[in-house]
Specification:
alpha/beta; Rossmann fold; 8-stranded mixed beta sheet; about 20% strand
Length: about 260
Amino acid sequence: MSEDILTASPPAADVRIQYGPDPHHFADLRLPNEKGPHPLYVNIHGGFWRSKYDLGHAGHLCAALTARNVATANLEYRRVGDDGGGWPGSFADIRSALRFLEQNAGRYNFDTKHIVVMGHSAGGQLAIALAAHEASVRSVISMAGVLDLQRAFELHLSNDAVAEFLGGKPSEATDHYAEADPMRLEVPRAVQQWILHGTKDDVVPPDFSRAYVDTKKKKNEAVHLLEIESADHFDLIDPHSAAWKVIEPCVLQAAQ
């Protein structure tokens, strides 16, 4: 697998909804053909929080899941480079989108008892943060997530993307790191956390997820690690990858 998934056109969504006033406040819904109510997967795309990457590449993942009889909402949000993007604006958008979807569950036939929040790469950080800050989240999936913002800063991942996102170094934006860093956040023990990572990931090191799981287990959080042998960063969101046969059952299990 390569970054080709970032440019390949995904299957069209069933409906695009606007959850707020900004042009970036929208989500692509994909709805199963069978009668509901359906579990809902709320997906947060990655791209190191930068505006050059949009929700398009995550459409492949969402379409594949919807084919398995679950609804998906692929979220767009303001990112670094957009007016109001970065922390806390990006996160505020994600929270608004979740609340909009919950409030409109009847209209789209969502099963509000089975809502899963998931995110890839930088989206994994936002997904875990959402689980820590929003009491309604009961199941969260991180796929190759940037789950340690302090270490991401120290490693200068993606040319200091974390400093751009949070507005400075850890010593300069202390409150933002405390509010945003999954390693520092407390996720309620009732929330099931599924942490997925490929062993060949050269974008976000696999030990980000290993260290996160080790830390959270010591806090008695309900966290589960799945490492996918020989999978790279983008294999995890590519339904045509060899890794998908391992990933799909785990992802679908999260809604049970």
